[in-house]
Amino acid sequence: MYANSLPLHCTVAAGCGLLAHLLYFIHGEKDGKALRIIIAHLNAEVLLSAYLIRYLGISKQYLSFNTAINLSYFGALFFSIVAYRLAFHRLRHFPGPLGAKLTKAYGLWMARNVKYIDELCKLHQTYGDVVRVGPNELSIRNVETLLAVNGPGSKCTKGTFYEPLSEQGEYALAVTRDKAHHKQRRQVWEKAFNSKSLKAYEPRVKSSVDDLLSQIAAHEGKPMEVSHWALLFVFDVMGKVGFSEDWGAVKDGRPNPILHLLEALFTPLGRLGRWIWPIGFFVDTGLGNEDREAFEAWSNKLLAVRQKEGREGSIDIATFLIESFHEAPNFKAGLHNQNLLNGEGQPVMIAATDTVSNSISWVFYHVARSASLQREIYQAIKPLFTQGDEAITHISLSQIPLLDAVINEAMRLHSSATVGGSRMTPSEGLQVGDLYIPGDVNVYIPPHALHLDERYFERATEFLPERWMTAPKLIKDKRAFAPFTIGTYNCVGRQLALMELRYLLAYTVWNYEFAYAPGENGRRMEEESLDLVIMKAGKLDVVFKKRESVGL
Ligand code: HEM
């Protein structure tokens, strides 16, 4: 008798599947709710099992009922999702691979070689400027859209990518999606990077340059792996600038374990190809979170020590974060709880290490292969360097156009922020010229794709520093150069990054001539570079030789 009711049960289950989609999944964001959704389904499964066992006992029939009901529910749910995404979704008219239209898991395929950005650029070649790269996600390779999405007055917020990246539910500057909250946080961070603060950081950057120059002296004539030393250099700078600590990584010469943790943080993000809900799931369950937790514990401890001990008379990034924490809750821009303070401490390392070390590595990749470029840089810095160390400041270095031309060109060709941050369009949508982007859609404007676009840069794939100086015609639209992105969410640490790059390049060229090590052709660096959300340059061996002509 009960056995005859299987069709009815399956019909009800399929109806539930359809309703689950139409009443729940279709509405609002679900990226940060994976665990809750899985738990709800497991609970439903327990209830279903209890109900079936009551009538059928634990029997073969129970198993077949259970399986059929589940298949009906999930079959209807996924059928509805697929039909909706292909035929009814507000992005249905946008071109893109079928897999990407159906599921964001397509990102896994795109990231199979951990080179998501290269695959994305290929998709733009195939489909044009606007590509649907996920069910609710567009990648747009167009400078007008960059301005409309990120520029002044834009109503776009950060996208769903940032949703699972909270610290115990608190969203720090780099990940908050609430505009008002972001504005408050940004006031705090801007104090940490105003000209007075940057002035205080300058000697620390210089001392890390000196440490690196000592290592170069010790390794003279022997191959030095550029991306390894760049990472150690940046790590030390952030210790000094972020927390007034000297971690001595350059002096030590070995990778600090924290750098492994940082890489472990980024690797899943890179491998998942911007598919974000699994990250939320792992964060919420605590599964596979050992490295993340170890990094957080380390970062939180740094702040806790600073909160307890202080650093009399020493300004660093932590000073401003902690100061505003202590001023809360009366101070409008204050950080109002410890989780938020901890969350703010982490980007000091996360946003500032791989980004800068990638750029340094590529600067050296290009400069090392050209003795004539080194001579030009040497001649360009000579009037400043012959005035003595005191004349050499970040401001005076920033006034040497060739330094910036080389740095800009390296950052143009090898964007650290490969696809850039995701943004969400306002609910009314966004009109950019002829293009209408529907509301509540995640949009990426990949700087790397803009930087290599012939519409914006002539001979776009070539390293031509002169485009920033004597051959401006090679830049057709400067607005497309956005390594730090633009607008409200632009990089708050931009000047510090440039300070590190300018100091390191100038002092190295002043003191050394360098070239690829015997057997090195630079291909490893190109081929082994990984898109871990932030680009991680591959390996490159360079040999340094003390410049005999210093000062001549
Ligand atoms: C070459 C080096 C760097 C590059 C290319 C770079 C690039 C970027 C980009 C593209 C963004 C926007 C991310 C988004 O759209 O969500 C960003 C944001 C940010 N960067 Fe950097 N960055 C660099 C160095 C640094 C440094 C040294 C710091 C120092 C702590 C830093 C701190 C931050 C922070 C806190 C944000 C979030 C800003 C906000 O949301 O208001 N970055 N960076």
From TrEMBL:
SUPFAM superfamilies cross-referenced by the UniProt entry: Cytochrome P450 (SSF48264)
Entries under InterPro entries matching the protein: Cyt_P450 (IPR001128), Cyt_P450_E_grp-I (IPR002401), Cyt_P450_sf (IPR036396), Cytochrome_P450_monoxygenase (IPR050121)
An example molecular function term from Gene Ontology annotations: oxidoreductase activity, acting on paired donors, with incorporation or reduction of molecular oxygen
Residues at which heme binds: C491
Domain of life: Eukaryota
Cofactor: heme
Keywords recorded for this protein, A-Z: Heme, Iron, Membrane, Metal-binding, Monooxygenase, Oxidoreductase, Transmembrane, Transmembrane helix
Transmembrane portions of the chain: 6-26, 38-56, 68-88
Family: Belongs to the cytochrome P450 family.
Protein name according to UniProt: Cytochrome P450
